[in-house]
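In response to reviewer comment 3 from the previous cycle, which asked for concrete evidence that the modeling workflow produces usable outputs, we include below a single protein chain processed end to end. The sequence was submitted unchanged, and the resulting structure tokens are shown without manual editing.
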Amino acid sequence: MRKTEYNVPVAGLKQIVNLAAEGDSTIPERQAILEAHKLELQRRQEELDRAFTAVNMKLSRYETILKGQPDPDAGNPMGLC
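The workflow returned the following structure tokens.
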């Protein structure tokens, strides 16, 4: 796997490369960098999952309306769009 597939920011990659040049004794530090990055990726994934669900709900609403069925969100001021 290439380092770009990790989606690690350039600064983090530089830090990992510099540490790797110092040898295996820096593995715990490199591991900590990747663990922190993993947490950030997880946070972003959760955010994307929520957005994906919201978009799917809106699309379902539009499909219902286009089929001539009653708007399931009628009267809901948050569902106007």
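The chain has two helices and no strands. We consider this sufficient to address the reviewer's concern, and the full set will be provided in the supplementary archive.
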